[in-house]
Amino acid sequence: MKISAALEKIDERQLFVPAFQREYVWKRDDAKQLIDSLIKEYPTGTMLTWETASPPELKGPHKYNEKQGAVRILLDGQQRITTLYMLVRGEIPPYYSSGEILNDTRGLYVNVETLELAYFSKNKMGNDPRWQNITHIFQRKIRAKDIVRELEAKGETISRERDDAMDDNTRTIENILDREFPEQTIPVRASVREAIDIFYKVNASGVSLTDAELALAQISGYWPEARDVFKRKLSELANKGFVFKLDFVVYVLLGCLYHLGSEMKKLHDADNNRQIRAAWKLLDDQVLDYVASVMRSHAFVDHTDEINSVYALIPIIVYCFNKDGKHLTDPEIRKLVKWFYYSQIRTRYVSQLPQKLDRDLRIIKEASSPFDELLAVIKEERRLEITPDEFVGRSISHPLFGLLRWFLKSRNAVCFTTGVALRQAMGRKYALENDHIFPYSKLKMQGYGQENRLKYSLAQELTNRAILTQVANRAKGAMEAKAYLAEVQARFPNALALQSVPEDTQLWEIENYETFLQRRRAVLAEHLNAFLSDITDTKPPEAAITLEEIITQGEDDELEFKSSLRWDTVQKAVNKKLEEVVVKTVTAFANSQGGTLLIGVKDDGETLGLEADYLSLGGADRDKFELHLRNLLSASLGGAFVSSKVKITFPEVSEIEICKVDVQPSSKPIILTVKDKNGVQQEKFYVRSGNSSQEISLAEMPAYLADRFL
To answer: What is the pLDDT of residues 343-401, one digit of tens each?
Structure first.
């Protein structure tokens, strides 16, 4: 399809972008590179369209009418097509609102003599007629002869060669509209689900979409309004100072529904539709606002600019979600705030985000005191105590500065100039800013400029900063530290102490600057450690034996291994007898003192995993495996027992997923009905004996029942 034809189809409401597509995210350099490639006739990729008479929800105000017949849906290439539309038409395409254009790439200029591309610069282009807005060339509002005339009017003599070159170049740009944009088309018979799957596969091989963006596309396929619903909430939160992207929402939903930070594909299936809407209702109505309120009132976080990684809020959100949005107790709030602070200064989520969320959200789900355990996880990797050396050369971009702000607000520190409490500063002119205690201009004169990397870092060190209101920072100027701090102390006697600034006047002399830094580092380390410690007591979790260690010790009366649930590794086929053995084992544990069954582990302790069982269930995942197992157990032991006494989890051993079935003792005997070799049903009573499950004869049953159940 020619580029001109694609743009015309957009204007004629024949080519649309589906609602599950993300916003326009290309930047100016991306637009410039696209036009450069088109001018040079380089390959520029293809577009993938879906021809359908049953389109999904569309972006923009247009509503599909079946009288239109089949229309084209743009699945891949929309960033390029949108760029071309804006540069050729000079307008935003009808399927986008201005709010969905994250970067406006219009206004690209071209030098018609050199074909150099750039965005407008007055110094470079203001008096040079050769530089023209490329949109005007596409629309033929400017021609080469117009440019030649302007140059001649300025006194230049234009040779035939230059004239021809500019004429050829403008025609080259105009001819871009006749370039073929290779198109691949999904046939009419494809369903919405199939089209989204193709969209996912096309984008999954590149780097243009994140896993969260692809998951959001799938969610929008079965919940067309999802993107707009999420964006409305994000707008509300942004007005309160808490700014998040759509990716964050997807991570929150994955965490709430599955207690995971990876495996975004779990959100792709339309089976999520009902529960994802229900989860979002609780998040929208209660949880997100409540968490923002808790962070503001108890953690002194007034806006997300203060946060090193907003993803630290996800375990907190999931924790509150698990409590059905009910308000937390004071001890619970103190523990989560303490963990949050350490997650920031020890940069818990700066790298390996999905993997770390997997671990942390599993703790949120399973632990009785999750934030104690989460803090212990951080302690495994990083020292919790803050030392004075950590401040050396650290600028205000370091997470310690964020903690410093929260600490100062917690103790009602005041602005040095206005005396306004930092916690209560209101209005734009009283917004909080940081300011040099020793002015950089004075330090620069003492050799702390950029020519000396080490000394420059000391001049910019966060320990040379005080928190002021914006109006105070504007008025302060570059006073000598000695005069400035003396004035502060005279006007507001407690102000310096509240911001942990040493009050020894000798340290305020500029020649003692580095001694001042040393003293304040020590004071801040002491104060911040005490602040964190005083929030609440946290108890390290008791060191439990690991699953690897349990497996190493082998089977016993409360532990049994099974290689698989239903896949016979010898026969290489499904064997229902294996399922019966699993049911028998769970029954024996229930009739005894309880126990644990590990599926995916051989008798000798070798970890096999569940892949064979997953494949035997039609390529299922852990959710379908668990459903199948629960159905098996419920059919034989009863649904009430299974729901209350059986816990099924999927831990990893040496990075291999297995199934762990924890069985509590039953309050009454469980008789299992089985078929013998001839298909005749018989009732049997199984118990644990050593490391095996054994049948008790009718003669032995009364004595056992009297001892176990009476």
So the answer is: 999 999 987 888 899 999 999 999 999 999 999 999 988 899 999 999 999 999 899 99
3-state helix, strand, coil in the chain (%, to 5): 50, 15, 35
pLDDT computed for residue 198 by the predictor: 65
pLDDT given for residue 472 in this prediction:
47
- State residue 206's pLDDT score: 41
Q: What local confidence, expressed as pLDDT, does residue 374 receive?
A: 95
Go through the chain and tell me how many residues it has: 710
d(CA 390, CA 516): 16
Cα 204 to Cα 195, 212, 215: the distances in Å are 14, 11, 11
The whole-number pLDDT of residue 202 equals 58
pTM: 0.59
Phi-psi label, residue 97: left if phi above 0, alpha if psi -120 to 50, beta otherwise? beta
Q: Which parts of 241-328 fold into alpha helices (H)?
A: 246-258, 273-282, 288-298, 313-322
Which residues fall within 8 angstroms of residue 405, CB to CB, at 6 or more apart?
Answer: 300, 306, 422, 432, 467
Which token pair is 213?
Answer: 């963006």
pLDDT at position 427 is 39
List the one residue out of 424, 413, 410, 414 whose CA is nearest residue 535: 410
Instruction: Enter the DSSP assignment of 351.
Output: S
Q: Are strands 595-599 and 656-657 parallel, antiparallel or unpaired?
A: unpaired
Lookup: tokens for 591: 């009739």
Tokens standing for residue 470: 């914006």
Largest CA distance in the chain: 119
| DSSP-assigned letters across all residues of 613-629 | HHHHTTS--HHHHHHHH
- 22 CB neighbour count, 10 Å cutoff: 22
Token code pair at residue 199: 């969209």
**What tokens appear for 256 in the block?**
């709430």
Q: How many whole angstroms separate alpha carbon 530 and alpha carbon 52?
A: 65
Ordered domains of the chain (ranges, CATH):
3-183 (no CATH), 210-384 (no CATH), 389-535 (no CATH), 547-708 (3.30.950.30)
Q: Which residue stretches of the chain have pLDDT < 70? A: 187-209, 424-432, 470-477, 537-545, 710
Residue 429: predicted pLDDT: 40
Sheet holding 595-599, edge to edge: 559-562, 595-599, 659-663, 646-649
Question: CB neighbours of 386 closer than 8 A, spacing ≥ 6?
Answer: 345, 400, 524, 525, 528, 529, 532
Give the sign of the dihedral formed by CA 612, CA 618, CA 619, CA 622: negative
Cβ atoms within 10 A of the Cβ of 378, count?
Answer: 18
Write out the H or E segment, with its range, that includes residue 580: helix 576-591
Q: Would you say 251 and 283 are in contact if contact means Cβ atoms under 8 Å apart?
A: no
Element (H, E) at 692: strand 692-695
State residue 77's pLDDT score: 85
Question: For the range 617-625, what are the long-range contacts, defined as Cβ-Cβ under 8 Å and sequence gap of 24 or more?
Answer: 617/566, 621/266, 622/650, 622/657, 622/659, 623/266, 625/565, 625/659
Residue 301: partners with Cβ closer than 8 Å, 6 or more residues away: 295, 307, 406
List phi, psi (to 5°) of 297: -80, -30
